[in-house]
Each structure stands twice: as C-alpha cells, then as structure tokens.
Specification:
Elements lengths: L8 H8 L4 E5 L6 H8 L4 E4 L3 H9 L1 H7 L4 E4 L7 H10 L8 E5 L2 H11 L4 E5 L5 H7 L9 H7 L3 H5 L5 H20 L5 H12 L4 E2 L2 H8 L3 H13 L3 E6 L13 E4 L2 H7 L4 H5 L4 H18 L6 E6 L5 E7 L3 E7 L11 H10 L6 E9 L5 E4 L2 E5 L3 H5 L2
Parallel strand pairs: 1-4, 1-5, 2-3, 3-4, 7-9, 11-12, 12-14
Antiparallel strand pairs: 6-8, 7-8, 9-10, 10-11, 13-14
Helix pairs in contact: 3-4, 8-14, 11-14, 12-13
C-alpha cells in the first residue's frame, strides 16, 4: 500500500487559506510529515529532529528563517520554542500570504503552550490521529484484514503497519516504545527510571476503557499520586492516551465525576498488555479493546471537520451507562459498544433508558442511538436505534 489519503487534508488546505500559520500535532508515526509534504508540496521542508537544525532554530532563529524562508514546513518544532516568537514577528511584519508557515510537533502540551503564547489568533491548530479504518478501506477496499475486527485491533492503526503488510506488529511496537520512551519522554517529562514508566504504561493499558482511579493506579505502580498525575499528563502530551469526560447534563441523579482512560491506539494497548491475536479475539480484554478502537475512530471523525461536538460518556449511580456520547448544546448521539456480530434489542435496552432520561435535559435532544458491534451490514434494532460496524462509525460522524 502506497500513500494513504487522509481525510484531514481538506481541513488543512482550507485553514491554510485563512491563517498565516498552521500547526499540526499528533503522536509520532501518525503520518504528519507525509500528509503535510503531500498537501503543501511547494513548501521548503526542514526537520528539527536533526540536532544541528534544532540548535540553529533555537540559538539563531533569525538566521534560521533567512536560510529557510517561507513558505516553509518545520517538523518537530517543539525542539526550538524560541522560533515561535520570530515566526510571530514575521507574520506581524505583514506582507506574508496565508499558509506560509506549516509547523508540526509530537508533544502537544509544549507545542500548544508556545502557540498560545506567541501565535494566538495567527495560527490554526489541528490534531492528526493514526489511520482510521475508513481511510484504510478507501485505499485498499479488498484488504482481507479489514473483515476481521480482532486482527485490525491487534495490528493497530499506525500508517507504517499498513504500508508494510509483512511488518510484524510486535516488532513495530517494540521499536516504537524504545524510540518514544527515549526521545519524547525525556523532553516532556523528567522520568528518572524508564523501566518504571514502561511498567506504568502497561498498567494504564490494562485499564483502557475503565474509569480512571489514580489512587489505585499509583498503588499498583508503586509511585505517588502526584507522580501518577504527572505521568498521565505526559502520556496525554505525547498523544498516547485520552481521558474522556463524563456527560452531566441537567439530570437530578448522582453521576460519576471521574474520566475514563483510553489508549489512542488499540494495537499499542494490546502490545503493552502482551496479547496475541487469539487473546484479542477471545479474552476478558476483547470488549475493552473494542471500546478503545471505537473511541479512537470517533475522535478521528470529529477531527476531520470544524465542529463544536465533544466526546463524553455517561454513568450514574443507578447503573445507567452509555459508552460514548457525541454532543453539543443542541443534540446528542449515543453509542454503545458490543463485542458481538449479532446484537439484539436487549443490548440496546440500557442505552434506551438513558436516552429517555437525557432527551430534553438542559434543552438538548437525543438525535440517534447506535450499537457499535462487529456486524458486516448495518441493520435496525428497533425504532431510533441502529447496529453498525464499530470500525465504520467514523463515516457516520466524520462529515
């Protein structure tokens, strides 16, 4: 499989017509450089992964920009935070067309802080996730792996794994972990013992799809809750995990306040848990990994278009629960994940009860109810509720 067209490309092009600076964040190996070089082929490219370029950009940003005048694509710009002020100066000096600076970075918090401080109002910011199942299917619709959700989850969604079908996923993730721990975390966080942090990541992977309990996680990892919070922030900063917030609405019920933890790629989570394909297909972890995959697909879909929609979950003290809610201040879409090919109306009963509570609460309406399962063909379960393949939910919410 050669270049895989990314759904985010259209938003990138559109924003580059309105903003002088476009910033693309995302984890390593999600395809940021490939996407941007394909989208902006006229831009001069320079990577600050090269230590000499990073030192030049940080120590002599004016000279760096003279050697690399716009239009320019600067990769891993977080390694030269001093460059942002000079990009701002170049933008404020006027005379520049829109889309002249395209910047990428793998460490979201540091990058966003620099962007907010120096380029507020001048930069558009987008996140690039790993490939979605619908992007893979569009590039290679006859790929037999796509017919096996467990195989897709086990392989994960990083582009290299789909461009190179013979590449063993375990080899890719082992290399990814070594590179990630050494290169990114030493910058994002002062981790004294990388082995301790890797064990922490494995414990987090075993909790994907669960309510976050920092006290229990700290106890099992043998670290303080303060360190746990810092390390979770580091994983968020490097785009490895997501904390999904609970939806509260305006209900007179006791609702959970803790977020749910999800790995951004189910393949990495399965690798960290030491699961082979058989264990992904049939084990106590199957449902959590399926929910993790659906979460990732929903987040990818929401990134493809300008929207005020946010991803939530719902859980109350009476046992009411909905895995995901996509909503804004007007409507809610409810999604329940089931690791089955043949869901029944009973599988949607709990979601239906929650929908009745939510509909009209705070002025919002429940627009749709979806069971994200392994069915190959969508079908109605009852009025207002449809069963769909969970790997295709991005096509429903991605515009």
């Amino acid at each position: 499989m050669s270049y895989i067209a990314r759904r985010l490309a259209d938003r990138l092009k559109n924003l580059a017509e309105f903003f002088p600076v476009v910033v693309l964040t995302g984890a390593r190996q999600t395809g940021k450089t490939t996407l941007l070089r394909a989208t902006f082929p006229q831009h001069h490219y320079v990577s600050l992964d090269l230590p000499s370029e990073a030192v030049s950009a940080e120590a002599d940003p004016e000279g760096f920009l003279r050697r690399h005048p716009p239009p320019i694509l600067v990769d891993e710009v977080q390694y030269a935070p001093g460059l942002f002020r000079h990009v701002k100066a170049a933008v404020d000096a006027g005379g520049l067309q829109t889309g002249q600076f395209v910047l990428t970075g793998s460490q979201q918090f540091a990058l966003m802080q620099s962007t907010a401080e120096s380029l507020a109002g001048r930069a558009a910011v987008l996140d690039l996730h790993p490939l979605s199942a619908v992007e893979i299917a569009a590039a290679e619709p006859d790929n037999p792996l796509l017919a096996d959700p467990a195989a897709v989850i086990h392989r994960g969604f990083y582009p290299a794994l789909w461009r190179q079908p013979d590449l063993p996923s375990a080899e890719f993730y082992a290399s990814y972990m070594a590179t990630y721990l050494e290169r990114d975390l030493r910058v994002a966080l002062d981790v004294g013992n990388l082995a301790d942090f890797e064990r922490f990541m494995r414990l987090c992977a075993a909790r994907t799809g669960q309510l976050l309990n920092k006290t229990a996680l700290a106890r099992d990892a043998g670290i303080s809750t303060k360190t746990t919070s810092a390390w979770l922030s580091a994983l968020q900063a490097c785009n490895q995990i997501t904390l999904v917030a609970p939806w509260h609405g305006n209900l007179s019920k006791q609702l959970v306040k803790s977020p749910k933890l999800y790995f951004n790629d189910p393949g990495l989570a399965a690798f960290l848990m030491g699961l082979d394909l058989g264990a992904v297909r049939s084990s106590p972890w199957s449902g959590a990994l399926w929910e993790t995959a659906v979460c990732a697909e929903l987040r990818k879909a929401l990134s493809w278009r300008a929207t005020s929609e946010t991803l939530y979950f719902y859980r109350d003290s009476d046992g009411g629960e909905v895995d995901f809610i996509v909503g804004n201040g007007v409507y809610l879409d409810l999604i329940e994940c089931k690791w089955t090919e043949t869901p029944t109306a009973r599988d949607a009963a709990a979601m239906q009860r929650c929908a009745a509570l939510m509909d009209g609460s705070g002025g919002v309406r429940v627009r749709s109810q979806v069971i994200a399962c392994r069915t190959r063909v969508p079908f109605p379960l009852r009025e207002g509720c449809q069963a769909v393949n969970g790997l295709e939910v991005a096509s429903m919410f991605g515009g």
